[in-house]
Amino acid sequence: MVPNGEASHKGKSSGEFLQIQLPPHHNFSRQVSLETGFAALNAEANRGKNAAFSPRGAKDRRILSRNGKSLGITTGAVAGADGVRKGDFSMFRTKSTLHKQLSMLPIRKESGLDLQNADGSSAGGGGGESGREESINQSVPAGRYFAALRGPELDEVKDSEDILLPTDQIWPFLLRFPINCFGICLGLGSQTILWQSLSTSPAMSFLHIPPYINTAIWFLALVTLVSVSLTYALKTAFFLEAVRREYFHPVRINFFFAPWISCMFLAIGAPPSLAPARPHPAVWCALFAPVFVLELKIYGQWLSGGKRRLCKLANPSSHLSVVGNFVGAVLAARVGWGEAGKFLWAIGIAHYLCVFVTLYQRLPTSQTLPKELHPVYCMFIATPSAASLAWNAIYGEFDAVARTFYFIALFLYTSLIVRINFFRGFKFSVAWWSYTFPMTTASMAAIKYAEEVPTILSKGLALGLALISSAIVSSLFISTLLHGFVWCSLFPNDLAIAISRSKHSSSAANIRIAKDKKSAPAARSRYDNLRRWAKKSLIPTTIDHHSSGHDSDDKRCTI
Amino acid sequence: MVPNGEASHKGKSSGEFLQIQLPPHHNFSRQVSLETGFAALNAEANRGKNAAFSPRGAKDRRILSRNGKSLGITTGAVAGADGVRKGDFSMFRTKSTLHKQLSMLPIRKESGLDLQNADGSSAGGGGGESGREESINQSVPAGRYFAALRGPELDEVKDSEDILLPTDQIWPFLLRFPINCFGICLGLGSQTILWQSLSTSPAMSFLHIPPYINTAIWFLALVTLVSVSLTYALKTAFFLEAVRREYFHPVRINFFFAPWISCMFLAIGAPPSLAPARPHPAVWCALFAPVFVLELKIYGQWLSGGKRRLCKLANPSSHLSVVGNFVGAVLAARVGWGEAGKFLWAIGIAHYLCVFVTLYQRLPTSQTLPKELHPVYCMFIATPSAASLAWNAIYGEFDAVARTFYFIALFLYTSLIVRINFFRGFKFSVAWWSYTFPMTTASMAAIKYAEEVPTILSKGLALGLALISSAIVSSLFISTLLHGFVWCSLFPNDLAIAISRSKHSSSAANIRIAKDKKSAPAARSRYDNLRRWAKKSLIPTTIDHHSSGHDSDDKRCTI
Amino acid sequence: MVPNGEASHKGKSSGEFLQIQLPPHHNFSRQVSLETGFAALNAEANRGKNAAFSPRGAKDRRILSRNGKSLGITTGAVAGADGVRKGDFSMFRTKSTLHKQLSMLPIRKESGLDLQNADGSSAGGGGGESGREESINQSVPAGRYFAALRGPELDEVKDSEDILLPTDQIWPFLLRFPINCFGICLGLGSQTILWQSLSTSPAMSFLHIPPYINTAIWFLALVTLVSVSLTYALKTAFFLEAVRREYFHPVRINFFFAPWISCMFLAIGAPPSLAPARPHPAVWCALFAPVFVLELKIYGQWLSGGKRRLCKLANPSSHLSVVGNFVGAVLAARVGWGEAGKFLWAIGIAHYLCVFVTLYQRLPTSQTLPKELHPVYCMFIATPSAASLAWNAIYGEFDAVARTFYFIALFLYTSLIVRINFFRGFKFSVAWWSYTFPMTTASMAAIKYAEEVPTILSKGLALGLALISSAIVSSLFISTLLHGFVWCSLFPNDLAIAISRSKHSSSAANIRIAKDKKSAPAARSRYDNLRRWAKKSLIPTTIDHHSSGHDSDDKRCTI
């Protein structure tokens, strides 16, 4: 409630694609005029202090405190700790910009993002400020994400879980901006290369694709990439704790590869009129270095196998952490460093092998993926397609190896297409963008194959795949615009980053309350039922209360 | 008991190989004269009604009802539900040919063979007609097969399990005719190709094998294939439910590939005097289409990973579902569609990789295979041999890839040969035929290798392997004839398809009985001991009672 | 107690490297002057008898009996069974050389080293001689090793475990001489080949390495190999039971490949001045035959998957059981048998695949490896490097396959190097030698690559890797000398071979004792605490008592 309008709309000036808009204004803060950037941030910090003294703000807070994390804790307990309520969003803030006097030790201990130490003891369930702080600063263990979340992207919270932030409010924009947004750049960047191939490939010359389509998409992709990168950079600056939680998230971690892969896509798909035919090797070095560092980190975790061993973490989005090698190999071949490309191809194939076999085995330890198909399964197509393209780029011929990978991708594509319940029953999310680039990669491999084996069938297949991928990217583009600017539902509250660090901490309070009522088990189960009911029924009510109250069109501004 | 003579001896006219003979005649139905085909079927349905009124039949039924599924249920309960007893075999009948008025809904729901839905709720243990029907119509979940069956082929019922059909009778012939019989076609079909190679390969020219051996085996294989196919088609027509249960069986499902692989073997091994050197591509399309559909289904199950994930289902017979790709690739190369062959090779190698690693790891989730060696382990040799042959056929040279796979097969062969307890302690079954074609494939690969590296050692190895495989096929052929026509034990009751859908349903009745006796645990354990004893001791008795009664030479007719 | 000084220092004459020295002298035998060889052995046997009658010896024994295996058993019970105490070391003796009248049956039953039968029933926990004998003769099941031991080399005993031999004494030298010592031969043998490559490779010609360095190292390695082999042969002759326990140890079993791989290293790295350029194929046959037999055994265990299935046994040292194939392939190419080399390469790659994927997945069944890095992880580098070298040797070119494996090795090397806690917190052991040869292999592959791609970077990399590996080998050599001859701590008591066969047997005695005290649970837990404390505190005390007593420089003689 207090600092919940953290939107920064610097994106407004950064292009026609991504319009990040205004902060939500609830009834107790609607008097604040629209401000921008850091000014808004400072203003909100002040607002938070003011709101603590306004009677209406206090009343609102009491209502809200029955939901979300502190649901069920008696109002007195919460009202007595104003610092706790104020910390609701600020606990994800970058620590150095906030209260420096508090608990610098755990931050310093954890700032190295040492994933190996993620199995620490759970915080003792206390309600005090320092306990809460500690519980946030310590990284969430991998098993906790699987225990508390569900869905193929691990982005939905299980019913039995409480989360740290109030679910009835709309959170600050930056907190709701997930790393998955780089998927948009992946989708557009790969389209750039596809249309470059379509316009330049001899196999596709019968289409007479003009080269300016490539140029147009390239600029669109560039603008998107810059916008998303800037926004996420702001998130990193202001909400470092939230970024760290995304980094520890078993699915999201793979999306940290997306920015660099997007850049490589843009470097590969740059229009010939703008870029030299052979970019400088420094481009490759600059773009691949972060990928390499991430790989050393993530593959090392698999290998040394603490809590984040492959057999537990493997999910289709793990392909994202492998495919970067093949994209990097293509770029290496483009800049003329063939041996570096072969190096990347070798890394990629070794780890692709592990990921492929692990995912196909569907070990009993990885039970989190539902059996329904989902766009995330498209990731299966990405890696063999990219491996095929990379081999062709490095060794200069579409030989048996490249064909084998291309055909594997083709079979997996077929295997997914024949399943009818493909896009059924899943609500749109920005992560879907990531699932378009595999299809684009497959169509690029099909074009290469059609160059090698120029038959009607292969050309038709290449054309068909290209059309499918472009159609899907177009429809996603429209969907994104609709969700973003018309329905304002592109960025819902990012519940996945706000799970409590341990189940224990949230239920401790309940037990204490139940104990007070003298008849623990019965009271507790009754209480739990009440809580479930409250969570499900109260939240829409209070949201309605907020949104239907005053300035109801404000809701549109939260994207 | 009543409709238990469902033998159809149309096989009698279909060649000298497969003589399917007469139905068993028990003492209460021996007055019925031998009839054929549909006439017999109709007659039996009538007989069932008549038998219900004959006092001797009723008495027999009371005796029998102490065994099999309903063992232990008081006679009154069974005698009160004549429909249940009559349904004993008819519940595996194709539903549309029987009582159409009953429960069409579950059939329609399940007719798509939707394996994903196989985890439904267990039937409630009731004894009524509709409950039984439902329990049959719903597909048996994969875990149930592992829980109730044992042995490397999952064809033996654990002692603690009851089965739905009476074990003391000889079931209708079609119910006892398993899909494994196509293994005979696999074994003979691969011999066809082997002898074709022996007679035409330059490396083997020193043997001067006449080409007519190939022709003779080819015709034998053709006749066998037609006979088995027709019989199984009849089974599909009359006992669709039994076929569906085989389809859901974790081991048997792989044998559904066998018919098409056999056809491809015959197409590849066709004598040059009869067939053109390059068959029409339509042959390949027609034969590989069903394999491709099955693969999409089965690999998709592995990938999407419901209850039938690879880490649970993997067993040596899973190789059968992979090897089809390589055989198809050889045929594709034969018809001149090299690219299609490469496509199949790529599919095959990707999934072979998964199966190979999974089987070598021996995950703790796949604990069903006993540690003793068994013919089923021969399947390990099949896939690398076929991969080697396919690569040679597609790319035209026995290069490093083909050699690597050939040598892997050779090592696995050695690894199996050095184990002395190879063929020990397992009784002959028709499934053994499937385990001959891997050896044949290995010897074909050895011949190709001997062509490439014509040394004494390689030629001797090829000759030795060819001799071993032919010797084994010959001995199996004789064994099959002996078991089929002399010992009449080729097709025992196929217990694997008659397990109850859930453990619960069969024990519910026992609990009810035990409850009546007021002292549940003690009574139940005493009761269980009695049941075990009855199952073991009573069954031979009643079988003896039947067979030693009248017309004891009828036993020979049940194959 | 009596035959506990089984040291044999025949090594004294076998070179300057391995000086195996004198038996331990405890306070009750410190009056015996230093003797050598079998004389010492006999002397000790006599000494043992004398000590049994000396009052001080008896007192000492009573003190000692409170530690080790019999800790906590009342002195009377032990003192009453002198045979038990006498058997402490003799139970690991080769049975035929000892009391032949006793229990020949189990030896004969087990002498085939039939690992499949290793899951037999546990000995009944009796304290008698025959029960103890049986418990030793039966092989220890694989799970037991994992349950009782810890550390990446499974060489440390968990606190809760008792071991069969007294931990406060220094055991006979041969009992303390582990199979891991062949790692020294691996490290020196691979250095031989490295310096041969450095002196002959055109890519490294700018270094002007004289060939006599190769010769010097080769002789050093040869002497080491002969010494270690002779010592281990003596161990096999006198302590066959201990060797069998090493054979059943999940990590040590892989070291049984080390002697033969060392021999192959020496055959490959023989100085050109001494050996013909192309050795006789019989050399390859003689050296590879044992490896092949071991492989058939071990891979067969993985495949048939009893208790020793791959998913349970896989650990980084499993690479040792795979790398032999590639070294054998290099040797096969050297002797001119290219096809045999391809055969080995195929075996190697198939099983490397399984090991690599299994280790990368880190299945939950293999939880024994700590997450800290350890020299044992260097083994990851060995196999791809060797595969690359072998492919180059067999097929004559460093093509895409060889490069892919070389680059995989390079990435894994990088992945290990960037982890800072690499050599931290682990005390030196002779097993570290095994972890040097992967680096040497990697640098050999780098030299081959530098020959193929002669750039500054590749040559520099090759030189750097060669320097690293030589530096590590040198420092290990010095460490070994220091530990061996100065600090006398090279061969500590080899606790891993002395775990009890089942947890039950050791605690049974305690239960019996506790029962006597009438208040079983409380007494037992108090008793256990006492036992733990005694184990931790008493042992150093008594050791100090021994060593600080008289002739404290005797300690140096135990190596």
TrEMBL record, chains A, B, C:
GO terms for biological process: monoatomic ion transport. The chain crosses the membrane at residues 173-195, 215-234, 255-275, 281-299, 320-337, 343-363, 375-394, 400-418, 430-450, 462-491. GO terms for cellular component: endomembrane system; plasma membrane. It is a multi-pass membrane protein. The keyword Transmembrane applies. Residues 114-135 are annotated as: Disordered. PANTHER family: GUARD CELL S-TYPE ANION CHANNEL SLAC1, S-TYPE ANION CHANNEL SLAH3. Belongs to the SLAC1 S-type anion channel family. This is Guard cell S-type anion channel SLAC1. It comes from Dendrobium thyrsiflorum (Pinecone-like raceme dendrobium). The lineage of its organism: Eukaryota, Viridiplantae, Streptophyta, Embryophyta, Tracheophyta.
